[in-house]
Design goal:
Helix content: 40-55%
Strand order of the largest sheet: 5-2-1-9-10-13-14
CATH topology: Rossmann fold
Bound molecules: ligand FO1
Shape: globular
Order of helices and strands: EHEEEHHHHEEEHEHEHHEEEHHEHEH
Number of helices: 13
Distance between the termini: 20 Å
Radius of gyration: 19 Å
Number of strands: 14
Structural class: alpha/beta
Strand content: 15-25%
Length: 317
């Protein structure tokens, strides 16, 4: 029987492991569920950063230094916009614009985000089924010392500087989990679920907050395994560790494992954090160590392999 995995991913960090998994598994074996709570309307366009980051990463089109946006990008639109004195804090490359304009037009014409996304991925020769977490509109707001900030305002405009005290996912209660994700999580032949190393609070939590999602993860037939986004107390990229400190939690892999402890079967932590294994196992979560820093493509593939091996071990035990 074909093995079947679901990888749950947010932005740049998650996409790195997603690429590793895509090199080991076929589109028949691997689906992706993607966060859409970072999505926003900017300059009249519907932007879906995590969907696009995954698409560019899997197709080899991503800007490797930034992690987001396209390689060999040009910025004439942004330069012209700046000359007009208009809003230029969110950088939209000339080639990248074609995606936002296409998405906006098709949403306006009544297509749903899943169909639009899957068609765009096909144009980029990415054949893995990709499921936006929902077709409905959900927006993350970061609760800060300066009030509630829309996610991209906090993340890009204010460079994650304001102190964080919590998060809100506007629209979450009435949003429906994507039926494609629901179907996979109910499949008795599902082999494994991988929670990629994305920010637990702003990339993964919106997906977990969708009605049904947490229960489906608790009851699905397959082991659910998360990979740490924190190595030796530091986030490789992004504000995860800073958020933990501001939320008065230790910035450790243990905090991440505990965050998912109601549904998690296994946790991959960095080899340098091996001392945390026993306290994570006390949460009834199996652990394995691996090199979780992904610099090269080989690192991504190796971590993906360690994750899949771990899932198989958990299935046997
Ligand atoms: N991140 C930035 O730090 N600065 C930007 O100007 C920026 C523009 C941008 C445009 C399109 C896109 O798909 C992503 C973009 N990102 C930018 C990344 C994005 O803010 C984050 O990747 C996610 O929302 C967090 O996961």
């Amino acid at each position: 029987m074909t093995k079947k995995y679901l990888a749950i991913t947010g932005g740049v960090g998650g996409a790195k492991l997603a690429l590793g998994l895509s090199k080991l598994l076929t589109p028949q074996q691997l689906d992706f569920a993607v966060n859409t709570a970072d999505d926003f309307v900017h300059l009249g366009m519907n932007i879906s950063p995590d969907i696009d980051t995954l698409m560019y990463t899997l197709s080899g089109e991503s800007n490797a230094e930034q992690g987001w946006g396209r390689r060999n990008e040009t910025w004439q639109f942004m330069d012209a916009l700046k000359q007009l004195g208009e809003d230029s804090w969110f950088n939209l490359g000339d080639k990248d614009l074609s995606i936002h304009i296409t998405r906006t037009q098709k949403l306006k014409a009544g297509q749903n985000l899943t169909d639009i996304t899957q068609n765009l991925y096909r144009q980029f020769a990415v054949n893995f089924p990709v499921w936006p977490m929902t077709n409905d509109s959900v927006s993350t707001f970061v609760e800060t010392e300066n009030g509630d900030l829309p996610f991209q305002d906090y993340f890009v405009k204010q460079q994650c500087a304001p102190r964080v005290s919590g998060f809100k996912f506007k629209g979450i209660k009435s949003a429906k989990l994507n039926p494609g994700i629901r179907k996979l999580l109910l499949d008795p032949d599902l082999t494994g679920v991988v929670l990629c190393p994305s920010n637990p609070y702003v990339s993964v939590d919106p997906m977990l907050a969708l009605p049904e999602m947490r229960t489906l993860l608790k009851t699905c037939a397959a082991p659910v395994v998360a990979i740490t986004p924190i190595i030796s107390g530091q986030a490789i990229k992004g504000p995860t560790a800073k958020m933990m400190q501001e939320l008065a939690m230790p910035s450790t892999a243990h905090t991440v494992a505990r965050h998912y402890s109601d549904f998690l079967d296994g946790f991959v932590l960095d080899s340098g954090d091996i001392k945390l294994s026993s306290t994570i196992e006390e949460l009834n979560i199996s652990t394995v160590t691996a090199q979780t820093l992904m610099v090269t493509l080989q690192d991504r593939i190796q971590l993906a392999k360690a994750t899949l091996d771990f899932i198989h071990k958990l299935r046997r035990s």
